[in-house]
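subagent[fold] <- orchestrator: predict structure for attached chain, return tokens only, no commentary.
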Amino acid sequence: MKKFFVKVFILLIPWIMGISIIILPPLPENFYYCAIIDKHRILANAKSPKIALAGGSNIAFGIDSAAISDRFSIPVVDMGITAGIGLGRISDDISQFLRSGDVLLIMPEYEHFTSMWDGDISAYELIFGVQQYWLLWSSYYGLPGGFSNYFSTRLNYRRSVIEQTIKQNKEQEMADVFVLSRDGFNEYGDYVKHLGMENRSFVSSESAGILNQSYLNNFFRLVDNLTKRGIKVMLSYPSYEELSFRNSAALIQELDMLFRAKDNLQVISTPESYCYPTEYFYDTVYHLNREGRAMRTNQLILDLQASGFLAID
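subagent[fold] -> orchestrator:
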């Protein structure tokens, strides 16, 4: 039996090495997901009490953190990158930099409670490509979905690098091919590279899905843990394109009711306040353009003021 396991292990070595060569090399320095490194530094250096904004790209593309910080005279850091990292993983990552008295303001994408809690290939990019290995899984979230798609994406990238090397071309960073890049974020963690660009066509979401109760339970456990640490957990809603909002109205109403029933989760907004016409979105049902970003930020400031938590001079 021992010889059998030794033979199996020997046979697996080439596969393990092959997979490692494909998925373990770090992403190019200017790749969009690498912004998490900068956001960690900004949040770690921000003085307490501070506000950390948690969510996906709906906050990266839709918040003017400087305006909020100036209004309330408190450090504000936008930790948003993409919903595909998974809300549990996003919140867990941020929590390592929070202290008692800090505020975690969560603005989740609705899919986080239907299909995206554990994340997708974006989470693998963060874990392996940006070498945030500790975020692979925890008691709050499981392994991300879509590993085969992630592996295929990385394999194609490695092939392109090899082809460029054979042709004696300099390796071009993947991030340079896309509008999205690490250097598109400002010193508050907001994505600003798209501001002023023309809106791009996109398709409205038919439905964000059906509530997954286990995801909601994990979210509430996470809120409980943060509250025990003295961290104030607040919740607002994502900007959402109006047709997509109507198509998911039942889910949104259900979530709002459940959130408000959680006694240690302060809901400061209504979902309807962040339902905007298509003209205010840049390229997806969650990404705002310059005008939409200003409108949403003003509404969030009003919601924070009305919450009574942050004193206004």
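orchestrator: received. Logging for downstream: The chain has one domain: 35-145+180-307. The mean pLDDT is 87.
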